[in-house]
Amino acid sequence: MFRAHAGFLGVLFSRSSERGEHAVISFWDGLASVGELEASPLYQSIVRRIEETSFLVGKSSVEVLEVEAGTVATGLANVLP
């Protein structure tokens, strides 16, 4: 679903088996692309369908953070499941 939107750079899915929490961390080329995603009928439809299945339990939140600094290994995509 993310790939269908302009400005998409990547996504990570993570979980804590100890706390039963999950996180989706997506990367975009700028705040305008994030805004377009949030306004997208496709994105809104998928979020609504996920919420209707009761797959998400408890509080869900969306935060937008700007990358300040960091590094990613060139071969990272080759080692992710």
Tags for this entry?
single chain, 81 residues, alpha+beta, two-stranded antiparallel ribbon, 3 helices, 2 strands
Give a topology summary.
Blueprint (H helix, E strand, L loop, with lengths): L7 E9 L4 E8 L2 H9 L1 H12 L23 H4 L2
Distance between the termini: 18 Å
Unreliable parts: none
The spatial strand order of the largest sheet comes to 1-2
The amount of helix comes to 25-40%
Sketch the major β-sheet: 2 strands, antiparallel
Shape: globular
Query: What order do the helices and strands follow?
Result: EEHHH
Number of strands: 2
Describe this structure in words.
With 81 residues, the chain is an alpha+beta fold. It has one domain (2-59). It has helices at residues 31-39, 41-52, 76-79, and strands spanning 8-16, 21-28. The model has no long low-confidence stretch (mean pLDDT 86).
Brief summary of the model shown:
This protein has helices spanning 31-39, 41-52, 76-79, and strands spanning 8-16, 21-28. With 81 residues, it is an alpha+beta fold.
